Amino acid sequence: MSAKQIKQAAVKPIPRTSVSGSTFPVRRSTKKDEIDYLRNLSRTLHVSNSSKGDLPQLTFSNELDVKLYALFSLLVKNFVQTWYVGLGFDKEEEFIGELVFLFSHVCRKIQERISSRRDEIVTSLFVDLPYVLEKHFRSVYESMRDCEEDESWGDVWMRKFSDGLIEEEMVDYRRILVDEIVKVLFPDEAVQSGITRRFLDGLIEGVILRNVIESFSEPFVIWEILGKISIKMQECGKGTTNEDEAEHATEQDHTQGKKTEQEHVREGERYHYSLLHRILNVFIIDERYQMDSGKWLRYCDFVPLMSLMNFVTCWDTRFPILVSIFQVTLQLLMRITITRKFVNGCLKRLIFAIVNEECIGSLVDSMRGMMFPRDEYFEMKPRYVPTSEKELEKVYQENLKLITEWLTNGGFSSSVIFGRSGAVYEKAHKVMETFRHREVNLVLLQRVVDLLVLMLLPELA
């Protein structure tokens, strides 16, 4: 791909300023000017004497493009520019231009896949993923039950349920998987070029996929994620605000003074109108969220999801009559065309309300923070790594306490879900214990990755 073709693909400007060499900032700015800070990372892709001032468009969102280019810039700096120090200036510029084109091509290709396979995504997330998770949890509990006193349940699980996979074999498998992904997503010129293809395989598998999977397979990492989710859910439940919002509210009170009674009444009316609008909006399915009638989920498709929920909450044994009534009612309603259309539309809208621009941007930021903590050099290391069983147990107990507090403070909802306060601790302990062994987590994550890949690239099946 020539420089002229790259410029033709450029449809969105990212302003350029004078940047000396390839110097990256070593710390992140505040949230207020974060986008400008990220643009500064991306500007290192430009050459000062070049006439090109634009970068190709990646997605539908300029802000998301900036975040993606910031991550891409750090990858280029750490894994491309360091390899090509001995090359001439023009050659390095041309090669980086090629990478920019490939990166934009893949991003647009993935976006096209998501847009064209929205219905299949709903099926994968509501049918296939619950099935994989429930099967995994049941196999873990079975291993816990069957293990002897002198062995760990992780060894039993690996022997009975890992399909004979070991870490070395999964590394080889990921190489093959990435090689097939490159064939599908990248243009023919890159696939036919042996050097470019090996470079892409090494970058995707060796730097991104392997490090992400291996990092998230660590037990303490999963426990800390569960603990942070519990904190976030508690804050949402209490309706807490951060310090900046509280300070802003205080300033408004001082500047505007106390609100009159009439203003309070108007605010109450606006709140109720807004609440009514949200309730009515549930029953209005936009054309964007209509699923193809041939791909509508039927009652039998919800069996894995209901089985997973029953497995977690034990509703089927605690409330057998109510669960039976619910299942029969749902089965009858799903035979009605308008009900099936409504349910499938709601599920599709739910998925794409969660997986939005903000969610994807947060994921990109997390990947950047995980791989480049100081936005400078590749440092794929957790901030805190337990070095002994005692430290690992401390992380376990701290996050178990957070999860238990969140579930216990649910009041009536937690009593309905778990039945009694003692069951909260028992269920939280079981969930935490499920992720005790790294090898087991590694197999689970690889299976989830396989599911997500097949969701977008069914030709790899």
From TrEMBL:
InterPro entries: Phox_assoc. Residues 61-231 form the PXA domain. Pfam families: PXA (PF02194). PANTHER family: SORTING NEXIN, SORTING NEXIN-13. Residues 1-24, 240-264 are annotated as: Disordered. Residues 247-264 have a biased composition (Basic and acidic residues). This is PXA domain-containing protein. GO terms for molecular function: phosphatidylinositol binding. It comes from Pichia kudriavzevii (Yeast).
